[in-house]
Amino acid sequence: MSTKTAIWCLVIGAILALLFLFLPPKLIISWGLGIGRHNDRVLVGTIGLLVAVVSAYRLLRPTLAENSK
Amino acid sequence: MAWLNKQVLAFSLIVTLAMNGFDMLFHLLEDTAVHLGYVAVKFTVIFLTVFLIVHIMGRGKEQGIVTSITGPAIFYVYYRYASPTLDRTLFKLDENVTYLFLHAAFLGIAYYLTHSLSQREGTMSQPIFKALLASLAASTLEMGYHMTVLTPTLVSELKVFESVSYIYLVLAVTFALVLVKEAFWSSGWIHLGASMLLIGLAGGLTLWMAGWSFSLLDSVVRAILLGIAYSLTEASA
Fold first, then answer.
1. DSSP code, position A1
2. Assembly ipTM
């Protein structure tokens, strides 16, 4: 994964986590983003958070990622 | 697909299966409810954590520690924000924060065992690690089969264990079979497919003879699950 891709993944993952995990459900629905049930949205947000965390780890330890190839 | 490395996939699956095996056995021993929805989300989150970190950052001590902390922490975040899927007045659930450390410990042990398997080729501990991982993976697959097919449903999607003593038999049978296979056929002349078939058939037959299979089809499913658990362990090394 290149640095540019890692930055994109960090931004997209963080946006997903912020939207579906940390905002109140009523606000999400009023914005027309009420896809699926509440727990489905929370799972999407959780996966977004995971992608953001792994991307941040990749950006913090670039040499480790390079050596693993 | 070049990015989908088979060994990375097998490694991630076996770590996740072993971690869930440890975890479910612990919860069953202390009478905490183990239900399909909860296990499915935990499996998904832990698998994705292990897979993404191994795929992007590789395998090692540091990556293992980061995985062991990240996986359970993110699962805990899900758990805090999601709506409860079981009535907490009826079922005891592992929502206490101390389970976070327990999950981290289980994931750390599973990661260490799987990583050591590929690092310590030819040593005495390798067959034991292989047998332990295969038996934990087999017990997780068995419990998954139990939850999706065998257990009578409470509500459509909430399936909870009632009696699970036979899980210990699955653990013991798989452990013994893999150890025997490693002791007598470790030279590699026996093909992976053949040993998978032998272990699966012997395991399925033992469970059937012990009276834990409901039908012939049930024995066949169990034989396949044991074979899958063994082949995943072999592929991850």
1. -
2. 0.90
* pLDDT at res. B136: 92
CB contact B86 to A (< 8 Å): no
Provide, as residue numbers in chain A, all residues whose Cβ is less than 8 Å from the Cβ of B82.
38-39, 42-43
CB B48 within 8 A of CB A50: yes
What average pLDDT does the structure give for chain B? 80
The answer to whether A1 contacts chain B (CB < 8 Å) is yes
Nearest-Cα distance to chain A for B196, in Å, is 31
A14 interface with B at CB cutoff 8 Å: no
The answer to whether the predicted template modeling score (pTM) of the entire model surpasses 0.90 is: no
Q: What SS3 state is found at B230? A: helix
Total residue count of chain B as it appears in this document: 237
Task: Please name the residue of chain A whose CA is at the shortest distance from the CA of residue B83.
Answer: A39
DSSP secondary structure, B67-120, as one string: HHHHHHHHHHHHHHHSPPSS-TTTS----STHHHHHHHHHHHHHHHHHHHHHHS
Alpha helices in chain B (DSSP H): 6-29, 36-57, 61-81, 98-119, 125-145, 166-184, 192-209, 216-236
- Under a CB-based contact definition with an 8 Å cutoff, are residues B158 and B33 in contact? no
Q: Read off the tokens for B147.
A: 């939850």
